């Protein structure tokens, strides 16, 4: 029940009506600050066509890594083939620690072909996936002995029929043991660096290789891999590439993402 106003006193609403007002006036809203004009997006950096960039990339990498070479230790094609099989999912440094004892025990394909699997497994255990690698090594050695009279073949087709030998392994052996430029070795470093440089959009190794082959002279294919691998290990590392010291930064579409 509403209380009646005391005689002689007008309510706030009545007072407002009497004066023609409408009670307490609402506070005026402060004006919003003027919005800042949107800055125009930065224009994308234009790069020379890929073939032209590839030539300059090669020239700079040749100057930057004059001593680039295969990181696996070997003295003959057999040793390089074994070391490359062992390098799957393993660092070259670890492989180089394992192979001296391995080659002392199995110096030739003939020796390895008749090896006890358990002994092989024990020697290569630290390289990982040692059971699969043992099967590949024994199968490869038997194939070399039975089909090629103990000599490592010097062509892609013959190498690839051997157990454990894919295109990458065959390219490593052909290019580094025989000086035959059959293709470009594509490992994780080459995949990463070539992708960041915009030389390929693929992630499949064989498709990446097919993108790289027409960009470089055939006589340089083996070295292209060594240059890209060296650059990937020293500068264009996976997590934090050192773009600030990269000799290819002005040629790399990815550099602006990391600088």
**Which structural class is indicated by helix and strand composition?**
mainly alpha
Query: Quick one: overall form?
Result: elongated
Domain count: the total is 2
Helix % is 40-55%
CATH architectural group of the largest domain: Orthogonal Bundle
Order of helices and strands: HHHHHHHHHHHHH
> What integer is the average pLDDT?
90
What is the C-level CATH assignment of the largest domain?
A: Mainly Alpha
> Could you list the spans in which at least 5 consecutive residues all have pLDDT below 50?
none
Q: What distance separates the N and C termini?
A: 74 Å
Strand % is under 5%
Number of helices: 13
Q: CATH superfamily of the largest domain, called what?
A: Hypothetical protein, domain 2
Radius of gyration: 35 Å
Main sheet specs = none
Question: What's the number of extended β-strand segments?
Answer: 0
CATH fold name of the largest domain: Endonuclease III, domain 1
What can you see in these coordinates?
The chain is elongated. The longest helix has 19 residues, at 130-148. The chain starts with 11 loop residues before the first helix and ends with a helix. Helix content is 50%, strand content 0%. Helix 3 packs antiparallel against helix 9 (167-177) and helix 6 crosses helix 7. The chain has helices at residues 12-18, 50-64, 77-86, 92-105, 109-113, 117-124, 130-148, 156-160, 167-177, 188-196, 205-212, 221-234, 255-258. It is mainly α and 259 residues long. It has two domains: 50-69 and 184-258, Endonuclease Iii, domain 2 (Orthogonal Bundle); 77-177, Endonuclease III, domain 1. The model has no long low-confidence stretch (mean pLDDT 90).
């Amino acid at each position: 029940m509403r209380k009646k106003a005391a005689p002689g006193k007008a309510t706030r609403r009545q007072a407002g009506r009497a004066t023609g007002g409408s009670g307490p006036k609402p506070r005026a809203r402060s004006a919003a600050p003027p919005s800042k004009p949107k800055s125009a997006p930065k224009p994308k950096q234009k790069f020379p066509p890929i073939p032209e960039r590839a030539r300059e990339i090669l020239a700079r990498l040749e100057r930057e890594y004059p001593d680039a070479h295969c990181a696996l230790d070997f003295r003959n094609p057999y040793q390089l083939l074994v070391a490359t099989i062992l390098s799957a999912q393993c660092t070259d440094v670890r492989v180089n620690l394992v192979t001296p004892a391995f080659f002392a025990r199995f110096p030739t394909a003939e020796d390895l072909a008749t090896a006890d699997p358990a002994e092989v497994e024990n020697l290569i255990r630290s390289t990982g996936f040692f059971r699969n690698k043992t099967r590949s090594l024994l199968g490869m050695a038997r194939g070399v002995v039975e089909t090629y009279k103990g000599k490592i073949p010097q062509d892609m087709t013959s190498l690839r029929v051997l157990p454990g030998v894919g295109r990458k392994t065959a390219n490593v052996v052909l290019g580094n043991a025989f000086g035959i430029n059959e293709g470009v070795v594509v490992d994780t470093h080459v995949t990463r660096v070539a992708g960041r440089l915009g030389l390929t959009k693929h992630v499949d190794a064989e498709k990446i290789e097919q993108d790289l082959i027409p960009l470089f002279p055939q006589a340089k294919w083996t070295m292209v891999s060594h240059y890209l691998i060296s650059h990937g290990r020293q500068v264009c590392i996976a997590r934090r590439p050192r773009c600030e010291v990269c000799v290819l930064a002005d040629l790399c579409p990815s550099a602006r993402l990391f600088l």
